[in-house]
C-alpha cells in the first residue's frame, strides 16, 4: 500500500524512500516496482526440522531411549533479497 501511495503521488520511486518487505512473497516480485524483502530459507528450515525429528525418532527406537533434557534450538539466518525499493 505504501508503495502504491508513493508511486501515485510522485509517479516514480524516489531515492529518499527505502521499502523492505518480509517473507519474499510473490507480490514483492510482481509489484509495479519490485520490493526488496527479507526472505526465510524455507528449504533449510525444513531440512533442519527433519534432521531433529529423525534424530528423536531414532532415539525412541532404542531399548532405553533417553529423552532430550532441553529443546534443540537451530538458527537459520534470513537473506536480504535486494530489489528496486532498496538499492
Would you summarize the structure shown here?
The protein is of the alpha+beta class.
Q: What is the tally of beta strands?
A: 3
The figure for the number of domains is: 1
What is the N-to-C succession of helices and strands?
HEHEHE
- What best-fitting shape do the alpha-carbon axes yield? rod-shaped
What is the terminal-to-terminal distance? 20 Å
Please state the structural category. alpha+beta
Task: Describe the protein in words.
With 87 residues, this protein is α+β, with helices and mostly antiparallel strands. The protein has one domain. 39% of the residues lie in helices and 11% in strands. It is built from 3 helices and 3 strands. It has a 3-stranded mixed sheet with strand order 1-2-3, with no helix packed on it. Strand 1 (20-22), helix 2 (26-30) and strand 2 (36-39) form a beta-alpha-beta unit. The longest helix has 20 residues, at 42-61. The radius of gyration is 21 Å and the shape is rod-shaped. The mean pLDDT is 90.
How are the secondary structure elements laid out?
Layout: H1 2-10, E1 20-22, H2 26-30, E2 36-39, H3 42-61, E3 79-81
Features:
3 strands; 11% strand; 87 residues
